[in-house]
């Protein structure tokens, strides 16, 4: 197979083609004055073309009733975001935060988490600069999280999407249990990720704190596939065929409808 | 897309025919004889009649023409190319879309790489224009000597492809490369000496225009005194004309004394004479009109409402009072004073009315221009009117428009004439000047101006201006590698910039680039996002593209290909405009590579095609190797191995042609994978070892680990497992530390395989768990499925199987896919496999291929003549034929006009046929030094050449008595000869070549037959003899061979029968007997 390195080329320079960059590792730190987050990280994705499935809503409702935290784990294209977004809309209050590679900086992560929970005001419509003296770096994860969850009334549903971007950070192992244990009594933390966190989950699961929903549960059943195909104007027989071939894997099914 | 708004159409109007002009046959003849060379240069002082001569010549031609009157503002490449393209688009309205699109966004790319724009322009000419045309660059000297436009013209001339002839008028010899080739230059040059009137012409001038017969003495005197200077003669003629009109005789002035003066004195004397004869109103009009450089009729009427310009200008032009007119006779009519006469008028204005009057008039006209939005025309007039502060103010306000139009020289030239104090008072003018300098590559000048701007902005408390200037300084520092300094300047700039402002946007992007230089990708990514947000909010599409590309690089490097593609979609997504910029070729190449990692092969091919298209348009030869390499990777992925091999070879050849060391690229690593795939591990290892050595020299740590991982792969294939686990683990840890997720996944998978081989299944399981984790997080599903396909035993292991999602478990449990057999040539022959850009097969029915699967269809050529001309050139010596020869051969019975009409369209059909439906357009046919030739930069396979080469090889082998090589060469030659040369073409030239190749083929067959005889392969002798007799039944040497063959087989009866048949046919057809030698052999055989 191909390896992946030095294979992309810079575009910005007018002076002919820029040779590959030699990348050096660097600490993901930034001066506080330049911490920036982008408002669409906090916006609920467009759900207008998504199919609501009662089974998934029920699954999540039960999870909210019985656990403090729900973790939906599945590969790309298995319908995590759709499930979370459609469910969030049924919640009386919710916050949304999509993590990405930049959030591997703990300061940025905590700033963003706080911003999503507080609700955000943006400059120029979309852009916000966030400077917080509270999160100059991680002093104490526990107290930082308590500060975030305790400073304001929290929404009933706190969604953090794509948490897997943080899995390889050295502070994630400390963060994850504290985060789960600190969720306010009247709130529920719903996280999505592409693989399961490296932290041991069994203890939290056994204590009825964390509910793990794996991707197979998100796959389309035959009835759901039929409804989905009907919505697309396709016939039931094809829905059945495609569901059998793909086992109901959402992205692969959608691929076949193309 | 139409031509840019900044273009003044009047500059593209040819001069109107001057009444009473003398036809100069000897100069026409010289110009005519030079039409086959790419350029003619008329270089002489003012007033020598260059423009008149060239304009009359162009009008007399049947070819269309483009007239471009240059002035000092045309020294900027963008301006020059915009005018030139607009001019050509007058010949074909749809012409120019690509070049205009490029010029609109080219920015400093053009200053650095002007050749690209020319290549784009020439490609568009080749694509769209079929008829030969003339381009005139009038008053070329105005652009000065220090401009990149000369490079543009040089390349334009070099690659003119016989489609246009360039005619340049200039007062001095321009610094063009062609002008340095002295022998060639002489023939294409019209000098002052050529332009001076001969005695005969002086006599004709007076006779033709005034009906005055000059005596020999007078002719000699005029000639001696004026040295044939056209303007002086015209002046004398005009004075004489007026004398005659007023009923006088031939001029009675003392020309002998006048003509002793300098040319300027002579001019002033006669101009005074001309001037004095006009009415006071006209004199006044003359002086006032002289304040502007050119006089478009409609503009003049607005600027000088009291002068009745619509009446007097045509009248003066009609009377030839040093006023030329250009135009189409309709609205767009523009008048220009003769430059010497305009100088005279301005001097006169000053002396008669005083300095204040002329300054006042200039200011008045400038105000009128400004009222109509003509700030670019107002600025030089304000400077001339000594209103420099207002000029600086307008420059500060409008300079960005000049920059946007690429008119950098206009900024610099005007700013040079404004006092420093005025510029400092309006420091944004300094920003414009600095930008103009930067865009022309004058970075030190730009820096000085920016520092001055910062000081002046601070004095007037212009914070946004300070932010802009400081940002520009930071950007310069970054380019010089002074990253710390750049970051300090940016911090300062940001302190002045408003959030969400243009300056804040630029600062964020530049900060991002600084952080990239420092290797801090995470922080850089944040900055790019800020820049992108502002750019999108400001709807700055150009900036969005640049930043989105920068943003895509970081996830691309860390192996988050989907995220990288997400950013690229902002540039290349559905409905996004295609930009014709060279950088976009790099963008498409990058996206293609990302798609390939994800197994999105169709998208990969699409983006590679688009990258190659731009590469071709801009002639980005240095990038082409990489595009071919990426194509090869794609074909390797699809298991189209011969094609992959071909494209690796193409890439290698392109790297070599452009002087790029392939070791500095990924080429060897990719090629090594190809060799491993076809089972040539030795070659694969050799390539990787060379690469590692090279990377060690350059301390390329990541590259070393990557290539060494390739070696580990080979070791595992070959069962060299000692120490292997440790080595792979080291690489995996390195990649993890660096955040190179995909590389880590590769290493971990290889580690799992190594553990599997050593039976350490528990550790193997942990390694695969990491593979699955990375694969899920970064969506490496395509890659993972391939790994499952190749390592089913590993994935079927209980611990691992249970971790797999349902669909992947199904894959593990299913029947293995039937893999396509690897159809690659044996490794030993791979490297010698030739490839070609174009295969031409002329032996038999003509077949021409860009790729072996799809020969060009007959109707691709538009006309058969186009195809035949191409075949003629391809089969000629040195693949080259003089243009005249082509004309004589293919249009033998047609008149010159028909030839002129048809010749270039036919050549154009050839070029189009060879590129029809192709992403990779190539210029197969060049025009050089009066001849058409196949482009030596392109790789051709021509069967006639190969056939001749094989015969030469056979002759050599025969001399060296190397029968094996002899047979090989002969058999290959025989195989190439599919039939007669160009079957179906009955032109004389084809018949002639056909005869030659037929003879050669008979030689091949007979040599093969003789070889078969010595090897006692009787059936072969028989078959080959029959082939020969089909073409020439009376080849007695072959008949003797047949007799001997029959004899050797003991077939006496058959030999007798053969001999009798031969004798009978010789008697009946040729009335001769078999030769004594044939009879002797026959006797020996049958006793």
How helix-rich are the residues of chain A, as a percent range?
25-40%
Kindly report the greatest chain-chain contact and the residue count on each side.
Answer: A-B, 61 and 88 residues
Rg of chain B, alpha carbons: 39 Å
Computed over alpha carbons, the radius of gyration of chain A is: 21 Å
Instruction: Please tally the helical runs of chain A, counting DSSP H or I stretches of 4 or more residues.
Output: 9
Approximate shape of chain A: elongated
Strand order of the largest sheet of chain A: 3-5-6-2-7
* Low-pLDDT ranges of chain A: 1-37, 121-137
Give the SSE layout.
The complex is a heterodimer of chains A (258) and B (1087).
Chain A: E1 36-38, H1 54-66, E2 69-73, H2 80-88, E3 94-98, H3 106-118, E4 127-129, H4 141-151, E5 157-161, H5 172-181, E6 188-193, H6 202-206, E7 210-214, H7 222-231, H8 236-246, H9 250-257
Parallel strand pairs in A: 2-6, 2-7, 3-5, 5-6
Antiparallel strand pairs in A: 1-4
Helix pairs in contact in A: 1-2, 3-4, 7-8
Chain B: H1 25-33, E1 39-43, H2 50-60, E2 65-69, H3 77-89, H4 97-105, H5 108-112, H6 114-128, E3 133-138, H7 149-158, E4 164-170, H8 177-180, H9 182-187, E5 189-191, H10 192-195, H11 199-210, H12 216-226, H13 230-245, H14 255-258, H15 263-276, H16 280-289, E6 295-296, H17 297-303, H18 309-318, E7 323-327, E8 333-337, H19 339-353, H20 355-371, H21 375-384, H22 388-404, H23 408-416, H24 420-425, H25 428-439, H26 443-460, H27 463-479, H28 483-496, H29 502-517, H30 521-537, H31 541-558, H32 561-572, H33 582-597, H34 601-617, H35 621-637, H36 641-657, H37 667-677, H38 681-697, H39 701-717, H40 724-738, H41 741-758, H42 761-778, H43 781-790, H44 792-796, H45 798-803, H46 806-813, H47 827-830, E9 838-841, E10 847-851, E11 854-855, H48 864-874, E12 880-882, H49 883-890, H50 896-915, E13 925-928, E14 931-934, E15 940-942, H51 943-959, H52 963-976, H53 988-1014, H54 1018-1031, H55 1036-1048, H56 1052-1070, H57 1076-1086
Parallel strand pairs in B: 1-4, 1-5, 2-3, 3-4, 9-15
Antiparallel strand pairs in B: 6-8, 7-8, 9-10, 10-11, 12-14, 13-14
Helix pairs in contact in B: 4-6, 6-7, 11-12, 11-13, 13-15, 16-19, 19-20, 20-21, 21-22, 22-23, 22-25, 23-25, 25-26, 26-27, 27-28, 27-29, 28-29, 29-30, 30-31, 31-32, 32-33, 33-34, 33-35, 34-35, 35-36, 35-37, 37-38, 38-39, 39-40, 39-41, 40-41, 41-42, 48-50, 51-52, 52-53, 53-54, 54-55, 55-56, 55-57, 56-57
